[in-house]
Amino acid sequence: MTTELNLRGQPNDEYRTRLFETLTDAETGDVFAIVAKEDIDPYLVRYQIEHDRALEWEYEHPDAEPRELRLTVGEPLEGEFGTIDVRDLKPQRRHEALLEIFDTLEAGEGFVLVNDHDPKPLYHELRSMYGDVVGWEYASEGDGEWRVEIEKTAASEADGEDVVTRYDVRKIPKQERHPTIHHRYGMLPDGGTMELIAPHEPRPLRQEFRQQYGDTFDWEIVDQEPGRCRVHITKRSDADGDASSGIETDANDAAVDGESLETTAELDVRDLPPAQRHERIFDAYAELAGGEGFVLVNDHDPKPLYHQFEAEAGPEFRWEYRKREPGEFRVLIGKADASGAELEASNHSSREETGSEAPF
């Protein structure tokens, strides 16, 4: 038997009360069909903590509104952490929900995060926002399912300044800095501000932003002193998307960075649950030979995926927008042939040896 719970007519500040009252007498195996105006994941994690009872839930249509989910009551947790699987959440919503959940934790409380890729950028974000109070332990890694136990090890509150997120890049390994920042910037809402704390003015990063995002962001140095530079990056609310150039064409051969890639397939992931999309895309990429590519079709700008590829794939990785319209983004993703990849790797190595790129 399934119990229905409709929260759409309730004020948002009453969601928790109604939800907890409904689940009070629930037993293992009970199923609830819940409809709400927004994601209720933070409340469900909070319930697991306070009632020591496992919950499992899945959204019927991850991108649809109102939010419809099917929730099943599990066994008592007996002191273990409850789980939140964010693979069904929109990428833009994942960090928001997880920051909200972590903010409500008391010292010693935590949860198990399940994600479709390594959530390391979240680790850097939590440490930058809350300090050295983030317990982080991988339970499993890879194959489209990463499980991490996250604990707030001591009392801490985020700085109340009006920013969406903050990264102290001085605490992030150099090779992870730029991919982490781009990954999170892609998830900022229009008008949202990201704060960076860097050891010096991050001019190379600003140049990257100009190249990739054009005039769709504002860059402000808030304060600067030896060893510390604080920068606010704001995504303009009137931005019309990524300003990087793309070539719209139906040709089988596409010029990417001066090379020719043979388009071997089209991969439309719009009907797939978000939890399955990245795995399918990376599988398709792994099957490519040098000089081949496929066209990815998605319902939103897959820019965070670009930065994940950039961080994990080799110099042969290629990316080119073909179409950018509401509900339909087309991107050519491919592998350069061996000569092109070797040339780019050589150029990158030369830049590092000559010091032409700043360490940030």
Question: Which features would summarize this protein structure in a list?
Answer:
360 residues, Translation Initiation Factor IF3, 3 domains, 5-stranded mixed beta sheet, 4-stranded mixed beta sheet, 9 helices, globular, disordered C terminus
Report on the structure:
InterPro entries: DUF2249. The chain has 360 residues and is α+β, with helices and mostly antiparallel strands. The strands form four sheets. A five-stranded mixed sheet has the order 13-14-15-17-16, covered by helices on one side. A four-stranded mixed sheet has the order 1-2-4-3, with helices on one face. A four-stranded mixed sheet has the order 5-6-8-7, covered by helices on one side. The longest helix has 17 residues. Helix 5 runs antiparallel to helix 8. It has three domains: 151 residues, Translation Initiation Factor IF3, CATH 3.30.110.40; 71 residues, 2-Layer Sandwich (Translation Initiation Factor IF3), CATH 3.30.110; 90 residues, 2-Layer Sandwich (Translation Initiation Factor IF3), CATH 3.30.110. Helix content is 30%, strand content 32%. The radius of gyration is 22 Å and the shape is globular. It starts with a strand and ends in a 6-residue tail after the last helix. The protein is built from nine helices and 17 strands.
What's the structural blueprint in terms of helices and strands?
Layout: E1 2-6, H1 15-23, E2 31-36, H2 41-51, E3 53-59, E4 67-76, E5 82-85, H3 91-104, E6 110-115, H4 120-130, E7 134-140, E8 146-152, E9 165-168, H5 174-185, E10 193-198, H6 203-213, E11 217-225, E12 228-235, E13 253-256, E14 259-268, H7 274-286, E15 292-298, H8 303-312, E16 317-325, E17 328-335, H9 338-354
Parallel strand pairs: 1-2, 5-6, 9-10, 14-15
Antiparallel strand pairs: 2-4, 3-4, 6-8, 7-8, 10-12, 11-12, 13-14, 15-17, 16-17
Helix pairs in contact: 2-3, 5-8
Domain DUF2249: 83-152, 167-235, 266-335
Region (Disordered): 337-360
Pfam family, one: DUF2249
